[in-house]
Amino acid sequence: MKVSSSEVVGRFAPSPSGPLHFGSIVAAVGSCLSARHGGGRWLLRIEDVDAPRTVAGAADGILRTLERFGFEWDGPVVWQSARTQAYRDAFERLRADGRVFGCACTRKEMADSALARDGTRRYPGTCRGGLPPGREARAWRLRVEPGVVAFDDEVQGHLEEDLAADVGDFVLLRADGLFAYQLAVVVDDAHAGVTEVVRGADLLDSTARQILLQGLLGYPTPAYAHLPVACNGAGEKLSKQTLARAVDGAEPGRVLVDALDFLGQAPPAGLAESGLAAVWAWARENWSMARVPRRRSVPASRYG
Fold it and tell me: What is the largest CA-CA distance in the chain?
């Protein structure tokens, strides 16, 4: 079901795996302005559920950068690392409904499986009917039934995915004992009353899985808008892995104006020199999701 709340609630949810780069700022700007332009609230969540990928000090650096760039969020920052019990409660509900099963497969054993859309291995269903003799569960998966998940993305248009065919039964509780991102983000968005998810198109292939989980848990489905991802000159997504430059030392007003331009908002010449407050005032007044490029990626080689 769709969210029926009259109040717009958006969120920005960075992972503390490194400092913010231009692509991160683009996602923050888009999600913040979409919520603020609609008179709504904008929340901040630190997605540190994947402890092995968390870099010491990165979360504090993210918060300082956002403050320096003039971002203002509503309410306290939510930390996924403090919400393990909420994820366990949702997991147990799904298990009680017979939608979860134990899986003994290792990555090596799945190395020859077909690739899903997002580059992960499609689960072949090895343990779906029960664990092989002498094997114990390493991870726990959601039992995915055949059927198409469809949604209308405000930027990318109408999208459909048959999860059973394209992804297979996906992991909810990992072999290392950590809850998977797909479950955590669904539980967190529902708990916070999020009505719209505005984020990068690199997460587009996670959306059908999240919508499926929302339905199984009885949660409302927010509206989705997946912004084009900022890429370097080689066409690679700006990220820590592609050595994208951090924006910590950059001029905030200039970076914000570049983000607005990247998102098709056509900011006026000289806006960056008008001061941070003027940039934000213009952006809130003139934001339009309809002007965002209908593409999955856009070059931003200046920040690569």
Answer: 70
- pTM for the full predicted model: 0.94
Low-confidence ranges of the chain (pLDDT < 70): 1-5, 240, 242-243, 301, 304
Structure-token pair, residue 178: 């950590």
97: DSSP letter: T
Give the closest residue to 52 by CA, choosing from 184, 174, 185, 182. Answer: 174
**Residue of 218, 183, 187, 182 whose CA lies nearest to 203:** 182
Is 290 in a helix, a strand, or coil? helix
Q: For strand 148-153 and strand 157-162, is the pairing parallel, antiparallel, or unpaired? A: antiparallel
pLDDT tens digits, one per residue of 46-101: 999 999 999 999 999 999 999 999 999 999 999 999 999 999 999 999 999 999 99
Q: Where are the beta strands (DSSP E) in the chain?
A: 9-12, 41-46, 78-79, 100-103, 139-142, 148-153, 157-162, 171-173, 196-200, 223-227, 229-231, 297-299
How do residues 115-129 score in pLDDT, each as one tens digit?
A: 777 777 889 989 999
How many residues are given for the chain? Answer: 304
CA distances from 218 to 82, 93, 116, 179 (A): 23, 11, 26, 19
Closest residue by Cα to residue 253 from 44, 29, 37: 29
